[in-house]
Design brief:
The protein has 510 residues and is an alpha/beta fold. 48% of the residues lie in helices and 15% in strands. α5 (168-177) packs antiparallel against α6 (185-196) and α14 (382-400) runs antiparallel to α15 (404-425). It is elongated. Bound molecules: 5'-O-[(L-methionyl)-sulphamoyl]adenosine. 5'-O-[(L-methionyl)-sulphamoyl]adenosine is lined by residues 11-14, 22-23, 25-26, 51, 229-230, 232, 257-258, 260-261, 289-290, 297.
């Protein structure tokens, strides 16, 4: 029985350059959530994409001596390679150059125009190509983009406009009555105060941009790349091609994006949907940015971190773990190799890897590798057992807030509690007295069963390592890995064979 649909999206990444850890961050977060929701029993639709039109891409293609589409194909292949390497379980990677997307964009444009919210006018102002964003005279700072600081270009041309100004009150009303529509809260407040300052109509076509989707009925105009890209969220689920599917899936349950593109997703996109008479996404979450050793990540500084290289060196699971563990989701985080290595060595190899290997080694030594019986539970086990039984609820509560690092905190508190339980009960001491065999067995059972629960809950974060943990615990793939099993104590069967194997995470030499 499915719990219903969960439609989750990442941004459509620009293909002017290859993926870096900033892109990987959003993608991994979305993947962990998608896996978590699937294990909860939802029918997940997880969409990622590439944003391929506009001058930014055309210019980068030209610099590489390629046609825009040729260049986009090459970069998209790099994104796909990264997502495969990082075990991203997306259901669809939509490209804004896909035919079904292009026709869907034209259709939505026409609907909004027919509804009276698009008109032809004159645009005069400034344009930032790297951000693909329009700015007014008062917004620019010394001839530079107020957002990224790079020079803006003067634009003076006929343009189609979207009547964004018509939606000010409706948007404010929507944000007020849907407190989780924009998260985190600090960002919601920023967006609200900007809306309150007033909304200008938005130029949504360019004559000077050739690489893009033509305005239907007026092909001299190219649809503004942001309008084109945002529409991917509806074309991905059938808008313009399969109305039934679209009605089934839309609205999205969550748009996961970075903080700097919240305006597009929480103001422009909802206003476009309102103008088209379509429902709004339920929730938009803007995560923080990564710096690298305290500095902005940039090509010119030469400090861009390649997620593929990182995964090759330390494993996809370690990268997934690190990126979600290092900082609170919604806040900025700082990347350094020394912190990656220390998390791998302390948390993955020591805390988790050792707990598994020492538990299985003791089961092998004291019970011939078979899961022991738990006939001698005492009050001293209560704390561990209670913690184990409440773990799923605590992890789930954090996941619902998209607080991945706190969900991992909960898991690691339990991992550490298990390690403490080993020390408290000293199985090697119990093993010295044959009359304590029942107690020894119980202690080892409790550890193995705790590890089983940890494995289930950790699975969305680290799909490869947890598959190995699962098989080392003697469970086969067909065993139920849904969260129902994380909520039940006593699933491991006495007598079943365990399979101790290689270390889960080898220590990185420093
Ligand atoms: N093409 C637009 C999105 C259109 S969605 C309809 C775009 N693309 S992007 O490639 O520039 O950025 C994609 C995502 O990467 C954004 O969510 C952004 O926040 C994220 N990141 C880019 N650099 C980042 C960091 N240094 N750290 C974390 N995330 C960052 O914007």
């Amino acid at each position: 029985m499915t719990k219903g649909r969960f439609y989750l999206t990442t941004p459509a990444y620009y293909v002017n350059d290859v993926p870096h850890i900033g892109h990987a961050y959003c993608e991994i977060a979305a993947d962990v959530l998608a896996r978590f929701k699937r294990m909860e029993g939802y029918e997940v639709f997880f969409v990622t994409g590439s944003d391929e039109h506009g001058n930014k891409i055309a210019q980068s293609a030209e610099q590489h001596g390629k046609k825009p589409k040729e260049w986009a194909d090459k970069v998209v292949a790099k994104f796909k390679e990264a997502w495969e390497k990082l075990n991203i379980s997306y259901d669809l990677l939509i490209r804004t150059t896909d035919d079904y997307h292009e026709s869907g964009v034209q259709k939505l444009f026409e609907v909004i125009r027919d509804n009276g919210f698009i008109y032809l006018g004159d645009y005069e102002g400034w344009y930032c190509v790297p951000d693909e964003a329009f700015w007014t005279e008062t917004q620019i700072v010394n001839g530079n983009c107020p957002d990224c600081g790079r020079p803006v270009e003067r634009v003076k041309e006929k343009s189609y406009f979207f009547k964004l100004s018509a939606f000010q009150e409706k948007l404010l009303e929507h944000v007020r009555s849907n407190p989780t529509f924009i998260e985190p809260e600090t960002r919601r407040n920023e967006v609200v105060s900007r809306i309150q300052q007033g909304l200008n109509d938005l130029s949504i076509s360019r004559i000077t941009v050739k690489w893009g989707i033509p305005v239907p009925g007026d092909e001299a105009h190219t649809i503004y790349v942001w309008v084109d890209a945002l529409i991917n969220y509806v074309t991905a689920c059938g808008y313009g091609t399969d109305e039934k599917r679209f009605r089934d899936i839309w609205p999205a349950d969550l748009h996961l994006i970075g903080k700097e593109i919240l305006w597009f997703h929480t103001v422009i996109w909802p206003a476009m949907l309102m103008a088209a008479g379509l429902p709004l996404p339920k929730r938009v979450f803007g995560h923080g940015w990564w710096t690298v050793e305290g500095q902005k990540m940039s090509k010119s500084l030469g400090n861009v971190v390649d997620p593929i290289e990182l995964a090759d060196k330390y494993s996809a699971d370690a990268v997934r773990y690190f990126l979600l563990r290092e900082g609170a989701f919604g806040k900025d985080s700082d990347f350094s190799l020394s912190s990656v290595i220390s998390r791998i060595n302390n948390e993955l190899a020591n805390d988790l890897g050792n707990l598994l290997s020492r538990t299985l080694a003791m089961i092998k030594k004291y019970n011939k590798g078979a899961v022991p019986r738990a006939d001698s539970v005492t009050a001293a086990d209560n704390e561990l057992l209670d913690m184990a039984k409440g773990l799923f609820a605590r992890v789930k509560a954090q996941m619902e807030q998209l607080q991945f690092s706190f969900a991992l905190d909960e898991l690691w508190s339990f991992v550490r509690r298990c390690n403490k339980y080993v020390e408290e009960n000293a199985p090697w001491e119990l093993a010295k007295s044959p009359e304590k065999k029942a107690r020894l067995d119980t202690v080892l059972y409790n550890l193995a069963e705790s590890l089983r629960i940890i494995t289930v809950l950790l699975r969305p974060f680290m799909p490869t390592a947890t598959a190995r943990m699962w098989s080392q615990l003697g469970l086969d793939d067909s065993a139920d890995l849904s969260f129902d099993q994380a909520n039940t104590w006593g699933v491991l069967q006495a007598g079943a064979a365990t399979n101790p194997g290689e270390a889960l995470f080898p220590k990185v030499k420093t």
